[in-house]
Amino acid sequence: MSDFLLVHGSCHGAWCWRDVIPALTAQGHSAHAINLPGQGADKTPVQDITLELYAQAILNALDGPTVVVGHSMAGYPISLAAERAPDRISRLIYLCAYVPTDGLSLAQRRRQAPYQPLLPAIEKTADGLAFTVRPELAQQVFYHDCPSDTVAYAKARLGPQAIRPQETPVSLGANYASVPRSYIRCTQDRTVPPEFQRSMTADWPSPDVTEMPTSHSPFFAAPDDLARRLSVIARATP
């Protein structure tokens, strides 16, 4: 069985994996989630948050070779963590996540998408250091196929997202390339365009890519199916 570390995306926290952790446990795995700096219950000041700090938080949460799952924005920090310590990560799984390009920031990578469905839903904080999601648009962009009580649970917990880590170019090399990776595309995604998810993984081996017919939040829309898919991927990892 495998150990999983679950890493959330922008404006979310460890709370978004509420339904997936018990589902993975039922499959015989161990799983836990973290709050990246400044997210969820973590109170790191926004001015101190960096991409390196994100990667270090991931590495601090690893206790031996682990399957690391990154949702959305987390594709960048999980990749940097793999570059820093490839021996501690048995596989990276990108869940409708941004796959980094060496030398580009997440913001630059995001602008390569054919359209930007998230932009109308976000606004900068007064200090210009973070952005938030407009509550009235959160369901539309993140949770359109999720149960209503779950949508309420999530909207009450969304928080500001530090901008600096997303504007920082990432440097990746042989260490990152040595770590096995898989991708789960979400075909009804209204945040990361499904077309972009396909283009980011167009040259990946087909066994390393699978699709779910869900929104940007499969951890709420179909947690049992997501856990099953994660388990299948992990079991195929040496």
Automatic annotation (TrEMBL):
Residues 4-228 form the AB hydrolase-1 domain. Pfam families: Abhydrolase_6. It comes from the Bacteria. Coiled coil: none annotated. GO terms for molecular function: methyl indole-3-acetate esterase activity; methyl jasmonate esterase activity. This is Pimeloyl-ACP methyl ester carboxylesterase. It comes from Primorskyibacter flagellatus.
